Amino acid sequence: MINRVGTTTTNDSARILVVDDAADTRLMLSLRLQREGYAILPAGSGQEAIEIVNREGLPDLAVLDIMMPGMDGFGVADELRQMGDVPIIFLSALSDTNTKVEGLNRYAEDYVTKPFAFSELLARIRRILLRVAPERAMEPELPIDDRLRINFSQQYAVVDDQQFTLTPTENRIMNVLYHNRGRVLSPGFLLTKVWDPTRKGTVESLWVHVRRLRSKIEPDPDNPRYVLTVRGQGYCMPQRNQMDREATLVQDN
Fold it and tell me: Residue 142 — φ and ψ, nearest 5°?
Protein backbone atom coordinates (compact mmCIF):
# COMPACT_ATOMS: atom_id res chain seq x y z
CA MET A 1 0.00 0.00 0.00
CA ILE A 2 1.26 3.48 -0.85
CA ASN A 3 2.04 5.63 2.16
CA ARG A 4 0.17 8.92 2.03
CA VAL A 5 0.61 12.13 4.01
CA GLY A 6 -2.22 13.18 6.30
CA THR A 7 -4.73 10.51 5.26
CA THR A 8 -5.68 6.88 5.60
CA THR A 9 -7.75 6.58 2.46
CA THR A 10 -7.38 3.76 -0.04
CA ASN A 11 -5.04 3.47 -2.99
CA ASP A 12 -7.74 4.30 -5.54
CA SER A 13 -8.36 7.77 -4.04
CA ALA A 14 -7.24 10.74 -6.09
CA ARG A 15 -4.33 12.46 -4.34
CA ILE A 16 -4.64 16.26 -3.98
CA LEU A 17 -1.76 18.51 -2.92
CA VAL A 18 -3.15 21.43 -0.86
CA VAL A 19 -0.64 24.26 -0.36
CA ASP A 20 -1.57 27.32 1.70
CA ASP A 21 0.36 29.17 4.39
CA ALA A 22 -2.91 30.03 6.18
CA ALA A 23 -3.35 27.11 8.59
CA ASP A 24 -7.13 27.55 8.95
CA THR A 25 -7.70 27.48 5.20
CA ARG A 26 -5.36 24.51 4.75
CA LEU A 27 -7.04 22.53 7.56
CA MET A 28 -10.55 23.33 6.34
CA LEU A 29 -9.74 22.26 2.79
CA SER A 30 -7.94 19.12 3.93
CA LEU A 31 -10.77 17.96 6.18
CA ARG A 32 -13.58 18.70 3.72
CA LEU A 33 -11.77 17.13 0.77
CA GLN A 34 -10.99 14.07 2.88
CA ARG A 35 -14.71 13.75 3.64
CA GLU A 36 -15.26 13.68 -0.12
CA GLY A 37 -12.95 10.66 -0.32
CA TYR A 38 -9.74 12.30 -1.55
CA ALA A 39 -6.26 11.62 -0.21
CA ILE A 40 -4.74 14.92 0.88
CA LEU A 41 -1.11 16.03 0.88
CA PRO A 42 -1.17 19.25 2.96
CA ALA A 43 1.71 21.74 2.94
CA GLY A 44 2.13 25.10 4.68
CA SER A 45 4.77 26.47 2.32
CA GLY A 46 6.06 26.06 -1.20
CA GLN A 47 9.27 24.42 -0.01
CA GLU A 48 7.35 21.93 2.14
CA ALA A 49 5.14 21.11 -0.86
CA ILE A 50 8.15 20.24 -3.03
CA GLU A 51 9.66 18.14 -0.24
CA ILE A 52 6.40 16.20 0.07
CA VAL A 53 6.22 15.57 -3.67
CA ASN A 54 9.85 14.46 -3.78
CA ARG A 55 9.07 12.00 -1.00
CA GLU A 56 5.57 10.83 -1.94
CA GLY A 57 5.44 11.28 -5.73
CA LEU A 58 3.32 13.53 -7.91
CA PRO A 59 -0.29 14.16 -6.88
CA ASP A 60 -3.27 13.83 -9.22
CA LEU A 61 -4.06 17.55 -8.73
CA ALA A 62 -2.63 20.53 -6.85
CA VAL A 63 -4.55 23.37 -5.19
CA LEU A 64 -2.09 26.22 -4.67
CA ASP A 65 -2.25 29.54 -2.88
CA ILE A 66 -0.19 32.19 -4.69
CA MET A 67 0.88 34.65 -1.99
CA MET A 68 3.17 32.69 0.32
CA PRO A 69 6.49 33.65 1.95
CA GLY A 70 9.52 32.15 0.28
CA MET A 71 8.46 30.11 -2.73
CA ASP A 72 5.09 31.45 -3.94
CA GLY A 73 2.41 29.52 -5.82
CA PHE A 74 3.88 30.31 -9.22
CA GLY A 75 7.22 28.93 -8.02
CA VAL A 76 5.57 25.72 -6.81
CA ALA A 77 3.78 25.40 -10.15
CA ASP A 78 7.10 25.81 -11.97
CA GLU A 79 8.68 23.04 -9.89
CA LEU A 80 5.71 20.69 -10.35
CA ARG A 81 5.67 21.18 -14.12
CA GLN A 82 9.36 20.23 -14.27
CA MET A 83 8.53 16.99 -12.46
CA GLY A 84 5.55 15.97 -14.58
CA ASP A 85 2.06 16.80 -15.78
CA VAL A 86 0.03 17.91 -12.74
CA PRO A 87 -3.30 19.76 -13.12
CA ILE A 88 -3.24 22.93 -10.99
CA ILE A 89 -5.95 25.10 -9.46
CA PHE A 90 -4.84 28.43 -8.02
CA LEU A 91 -6.78 29.48 -4.92
CA SER A 92 -5.84 33.08 -4.19
CA ALA A 93 -6.98 36.41 -2.76
CA LEU A 94 -5.36 38.05 -5.80
CA SER A 95 -8.26 38.96 -8.05
CA ASP A 96 -6.66 41.31 -10.57
CA THR A 97 -7.02 40.32 -14.19
CA ASN A 98 -3.29 40.28 -14.97
CA THR A 99 -2.53 37.75 -12.23
CA LYS A 100 -5.41 35.53 -13.29
CA VAL A 101 -4.35 35.64 -16.92
CA GLU A 102 -0.73 34.85 -16.05
CA GLY A 103 -1.77 31.95 -13.85
CA LEU A 104 -4.11 30.46 -16.42
CA ASN A 105 -1.85 31.00 -19.41
CA ARG A 106 1.36 29.71 -17.82
CA TYR A 107 0.35 27.10 -15.28
CA ALA A 108 -3.19 26.39 -14.23
CA GLU A 109 -6.31 24.55 -15.28
CA ASP A 110 -8.43 26.89 -13.18
CA TYR A 111 -8.31 29.92 -10.87
CA VAL A 112 -10.60 30.44 -7.85
CA THR A 113 -10.63 33.75 -5.97
CA LYS A 114 -10.79 33.94 -2.15
CA PRO A 115 -13.19 34.13 -0.41
CA PHE A 116 -14.73 31.15 -2.13
CA ALA A 117 -17.56 28.66 -1.77
CA PHE A 118 -16.26 25.15 -1.09
CA SER A 119 -19.00 23.67 -3.29
CA GLU A 120 -17.70 25.67 -6.26
CA LEU A 121 -14.10 24.59 -5.68
CA LEU A 122 -15.23 20.97 -5.28
CA ALA A 123 -17.12 21.12 -8.56
CA ARG A 124 -14.01 22.42 -10.34
CA ILE A 125 -11.84 19.70 -8.76
CA ARG A 126 -14.28 17.00 -9.82
CA ARG A 127 -14.45 18.35 -13.36
CA ILE A 128 -10.67 18.27 -13.77
CA LEU A 129 -10.25 14.83 -12.19
CA LEU A 130 -13.03 13.36 -14.32
CA ARG A 131 -11.26 14.66 -17.41
CA VAL A 132 -7.84 13.28 -16.52
CA ALA A 133 -9.03 9.99 -14.98
CA PRO A 134 -9.65 8.15 -18.30
CA GLU A 135 -6.23 9.24 -19.56
CA ARG A 136 -4.56 7.92 -16.42
CA ALA A 137 -6.56 4.69 -16.51
CA MET A 138 -5.19 3.94 -19.98
CA GLU A 139 -1.56 4.60 -19.09
CA PRO A 140 0.29 1.28 -19.28
CA GLU A 141 2.29 -0.52 -16.66
CA LEU A 142 5.45 -1.49 -18.50
CA PRO A 143 6.80 -4.94 -17.59
CA ILE A 144 10.45 -5.07 -16.59
CA ASP A 145 10.10 -8.82 -15.99
CA ASP A 146 7.51 -11.15 -14.46
CA ARG A 147 8.05 -9.62 -11.03
CA LEU A 148 8.31 -5.87 -11.68
CA ARG A 149 6.13 -3.38 -13.59
CA ILE A 150 6.52 0.41 -13.82
CA ASN A 151 4.01 3.16 -14.60
CA PHE A 152 6.15 6.18 -15.45
CA SER A 153 3.25 8.59 -15.93
CA GLN A 154 1.75 7.88 -12.52
CA GLN A 155 5.13 7.28 -10.92
CA TYR A 156 4.76 3.94 -9.21
CA ALA A 157 6.25 0.47 -9.32
CA VAL A 158 4.39 -2.81 -8.84
CA VAL A 159 6.66 -5.35 -7.18
CA ASP A 160 5.23 -8.84 -6.64
CA ASP A 161 1.74 -7.27 -6.89
CA GLN A 162 2.53 -4.65 -4.23
CA GLN A 163 2.46 -1.00 -5.35
CA PHE A 164 5.15 1.50 -4.32
CA THR A 165 5.30 5.23 -5.03
CA LEU A 166 8.44 6.41 -6.82
CA THR A 167 9.70 9.90 -6.13
CA PRO A 168 10.07 12.09 -9.23
CA THR A 169 13.85 11.59 -9.17
CA GLU A 170 13.57 7.81 -8.78
CA ASN A 171 11.02 7.75 -11.57
CA ARG A 172 13.28 9.71 -13.91
CA ILE A 173 16.25 7.43 -13.15
CA MET A 174 14.15 4.37 -13.96
CA ASN A 175 12.78 6.01 -17.09
CA VAL A 176 16.23 6.80 -18.49
CA LEU A 177 17.56 3.34 -17.65
CA TYR A 178 14.49 1.60 -19.10
CA HIS A 179 14.73 3.44 -22.41
CA ASN A 180 18.43 2.59 -22.61
CA ARG A 181 18.21 -1.08 -21.58
CA GLY A 182 21.39 -3.00 -22.12
CA ARG A 183 23.53 0.16 -22.24
CA VAL A 184 25.89 1.28 -19.50
CA LEU A 185 25.11 4.92 -18.70
CA SER A 186 27.75 7.09 -17.09
CA PRO A 187 26.89 9.07 -13.94
CA GLY A 188 27.41 12.28 -15.94
CA PHE A 189 24.89 11.19 -18.57
CA LEU A 190 22.31 10.31 -15.92
CA LEU A 191 22.85 13.60 -14.08
CA THR A 192 22.13 15.59 -17.25
CA LYS A 193 19.00 13.56 -18.00
CA VAL A 194 17.56 13.32 -14.47
CA TRP A 195 18.33 16.67 -12.83
CA ASP A 196 17.18 20.10 -13.95
CA PRO A 197 20.08 22.16 -15.38
CA THR A 198 19.44 24.96 -12.87
CA ARG A 199 19.67 22.53 -9.92
CA LYS A 200 22.58 20.27 -10.75
CA GLY A 201 22.81 16.95 -9.01
CA THR A 202 26.02 15.30 -7.85
CA VAL A 203 27.42 11.81 -8.20
CA GLU A 204 26.83 11.37 -4.46
CA SER A 205 23.17 12.40 -4.72
CA LEU A 206 22.70 10.04 -7.68
CA TRP A 207 24.11 7.19 -5.62
CA VAL A 208 21.73 7.99 -2.74
CA HIS A 209 18.69 7.99 -5.04
CA VAL A 210 19.79 4.75 -6.69
CA ARG A 211 20.09 3.08 -3.27
CA ARG A 212 16.61 4.27 -2.30
CA LEU A 213 15.22 3.07 -5.62
CA ARG A 214 16.80 -0.34 -5.13
CA SER A 215 15.28 -0.60 -1.66
CA LYS A 216 11.83 -0.40 -3.29
CA ILE A 217 12.20 -2.58 -6.39
CA GLU A 218 15.03 -5.05 -5.83
CA PRO A 219 14.49 -8.50 -4.27
CA ASP A 220 17.94 -8.03 -2.68
CA PRO A 221 19.14 -4.39 -2.80
CA ASP A 222 22.72 -5.45 -2.05
CA ASN A 223 22.71 -7.79 -5.08
CA PRO A 224 20.63 -5.81 -7.59
CA ARG A 225 18.83 -7.35 -10.54
CA TYR A 226 17.40 -4.25 -12.24
CA VAL A 227 19.70 -1.28 -11.53
CA LEU A 228 23.23 -2.60 -11.87
CA THR A 229 26.51 -0.82 -11.25
CA VAL A 230 29.32 -1.43 -13.73
CA ARG A 231 32.40 -0.51 -11.78
CA GLY A 232 34.23 2.49 -13.18
CA GLN A 233 31.60 3.02 -15.92
CA GLY A 234 28.12 3.70 -14.56
CA TYR A 235 24.69 2.11 -14.26
CA CYS A 236 22.78 -0.32 -16.45
CA MET A 237 19.37 -1.99 -16.65
CA PRO A 238 19.91 -5.33 -18.43
CA GLN A 239 17.72 -6.50 -21.26
CA ARG A 240 15.02 -8.88 -20.05
CA ASN A 241 16.74 -11.92 -21.57
CA GLN A 242 19.94 -11.04 -19.70
CA MET A 243 18.41 -10.78 -16.22
CA ASP A 244 18.62 -14.46 -15.40
CA ARG A 245 22.26 -14.70 -16.40
CA GLU A 246 25.07 -14.17 -13.94
CA ALA A 247 26.16 -10.53 -14.29
CA THR A 248 29.89 -11.21 -14.32
CA LEU A 249 30.75 -7.69 -15.54
CA VAL A 250 28.75 -5.97 -12.86
CA GLN A 251 30.01 -5.06 -9.44
CA ASP A 252 27.79 -3.13 -7.02
CA ASN A 253 28.91 -0.07 -5.04
Answer: -85, 125
- Residues 92, 114: contact at Cβ < 8 Å? yes
142-242: CATH number: 1.10.10.10
Distance CA 54, CA 199 (A): 14
Q: What gap in Å lies between CA 185 and CA 177, rounded to an integer?
A: 8
CB neighbour burial string for 38-50, b if at least 16 within 10 angstroms, e if fewer: bbbbbbbbbbbbb
10 Å Cβ neighbour count for 7?
17
pLDDT band at 94 (very low <50, low <70, confident <90, very high): confident
Please give the class, per CATH, of domain 15-138.
alpha beta
What is the maximum alpha-carbon separation in the chain? 64
The domain limits of the chain are: 15-138, 142-242
Rounded (5°) CA angle 21-25-27: 95
pLDDT tens per residue, range 19-37: 999 999 999 999 999 988 8
Nearest residue to 19 via CA among 84, 57, 96, 71: 71
CB of 175 closer than 8 Å to CB of 186: no
Bridge partners (DSSP) listed for residue 149: 143, 158
Would the pTM of this model clear 0.90, i.e. be above it?
Answer: no
216 three-state secondary structure: helix
- Distance (Å, rounded) from C-alpha 15 to C-alpha 40? 6
Determine the Cα–Cα distance for residues 53 and 134; give it in Å rounded to an integer: 23
pLDDT tens, 195-249? Answer: 765 567 789 999 999 999 999 999 999 999 999 999 889 999 998 777 755 443 4
Q: Which of 8-22, 123-137, 171-185, 208-222 has the lowest mean pLDDT?
A: 8-22
